[in-house]
Amino acid sequence: MNKSQSLHHKCRAAFLLAFLLFPLLLAACAGGERSGDPVCPPCPECPGARTAPEIPSAPPPSPPLQAARWEDLPGWNEEDASAAWSALLASCRALEKKDDWRKPCAAARAMPSSPPPASAEARRFLETWFAPYRAVAPDGATQGLMTGYYEPLLNGARQRGGPYRYPVLGAPDDLLTIELGEAVPSLKGQRLRGRLSGNRIVPYWSRAEIVANENDARRFTPLFWVDDPVELFFLQVQGSGRIRLPSGEIARVGYADQNGHPYRSIGRLLVEWGELKLEEAGMQGIREWAARQAETHPEKLAELLNANPSYVFFRELAATGNEEGPPGALGMPLTPGRSMAVDPRYIPLGSPVFIDTTWPNTDTPLRRLMLAQDTGGAIKGVVRADFFWGFGPEAANQAGKMRQPLRMWVLLPR
Question: What is the pTM of this model?
């Protein structure tokens, strides 16, 4: 036996002996110096033993909302806050019964609304009743992404026939919603969707499965039939829209529910397929690609649409004036250019938000006060928002082009 082997066996024997005597050592040292017993000497280390290096722990995630100063908001003193006054009052109608909103909303209602307060007066009101907080991602990043959405117009009918072959489905009776916060308080606001299969709850049908069975009257109820599957897809992405009927009547539909599957961008998928360049993958580029495939490869178009497993169901909305926006997640009408969708896990719904972004496809600053009044399946993260552009061709054009860098500050009641 060489010297290193002998040393190894001695260390191993010492370890076994210490292991066997460990309970006795504990008993002897239980009183320590308080009982007057001798202090046990430290166990000798085996020659050559090394201490394992400490593994550095990951830094804690940044708080999503961090206190800021008004002077941190670029362009705040030039902002026409009066242009967002009606949107602020809409938030108050939804939130005025909450403790922290009661006083600022009462003060807002006491001010004139028609015409709204002047810009400087509106800013002073916000500075008095609210405090700014910078939105910060878990990794500490303060820059995120701003996209846009709008209220589309489709051609359709209440009955299937002629060109109207694609159903706008209402929420099915077998779609279950499970509020996770009722079982685990820390998961408040999160939910799962599924269906019963025997005595088990399983995931609800994917888009491909729903489309394959959309004519099954026992399972699904069409509200309308439209003439274009791509426009129907975009209606689901936008979450609300208008349908022009053969009589000329305009019906409106809004979000009712979703099948619980994650959203997948078909524009990004077309880029991955090599079908479009990144700068071409907006709504207009997708429409043009889809029009070509509909004539030559309709199966490829179906494959693309079904690659997004998410599916949105609708409800018919009461007729309102054409100037009023669709209801958002707060239940209040959205204000074009002043309402936006956020992730409510981080940004409280109804809150005023000051944004620092740029106009679509430009470097021109777009800095303004908006209201967090909606949500969206693709809007996930702290510094992430969707700008509501309104209704009509120009709104569709701006929304389709918008994919801009974003910084934002949430204004919370003091």
Answer: 0.79
